[in-house]
Design brief:
This protein is α+β, with helices and mostly antiparallel strands. About 25% of the residues lie in helices and about 45% in strands. The termini are far apart.
Length: about 190
């Protein structure tokens, strides 16, 4: 081998080593999140509220009555520091063929527990295509809500207008309930 050929080979080796070092440093600086992560952060938000602990906002969950094509959406606001007997706010919207001005009761049940709320405050009514959206707010004791989230097979019944409107969770909502229980509700004692 002549000197020129050796210099070219040495130059290629240097470039390869520099490239590998740069690639190593770039890849070590990147944060890689595993694809199987089940933190559930897309389902809720957490806020620190000082001496009151943390506030958790559980994003809307979808329920349906496939036969009647009715929908119900629920979201929860929880403030927790160290008392599981604190109240949580449940806001829900029913999208059905009837306008609802007053709710007699809202019942959320699963195989473990049942919660019945008779104090439901109307927030608003709105027309949405061929349905009405009626939005209400109520409060649930966190301890009871934790029991409800412990089993994803919910049945939601809304009693209003002398009728019973029944809803079950959509498939993705059932998965969401499991994830929320494992990542949020396990924190509450």
């Amino acid at each position: 081998m002549n000197l020129t050929s050796q210099n070219k080979q040495l130059s290629k080796t240097k470039h390869l080593i520099v490239f590998l070092i740069i690639t190593f440093f770039i890849s070590s600086c990147m944060s890689l999140k595993p694809g199987s992560s089940k933190s559930g952060k897309k389902y809720y938000q957490t806020f620190y509220v000082g001496d009151k602990g943390n506030q958790y906002f559980i994003k809307p969950m979808e329920f349906e009555n496939k036969k009647l094509k009715n929908e119900l959406f629920m979201d929860f606001t929880i403030r927790y520091k160290d008392d599981i007997n604190t109240t949580t706010t449940l806001n829900y919207s029913a999208k059905i063929e009837d306008i609802i001005r007053e709710v007699d009761s809202l019942v959320i049940s699963n195989s473990i527990h049942s919660v019945k709320q008779t104090q439901n405050d109307l927030l608003f009514n709105a027309r949405e295509d061929d349905k009405f959206e009626s939005r209400f707010s109520t409060e649930i004791i966190l301890k009871e809500l934790k029991l409800i989230f412990n089993d994803p097979n919910w049945k939601v019944e809304l009693y209003a207008n002398s009728k019973k409107y029944s809803f079950t969770p959509k498939r993705k909502t059932s998965k969401k309930i499991i994830t929320l229980y494992n990542n949020v509700f396990v924190l509450f004692e």
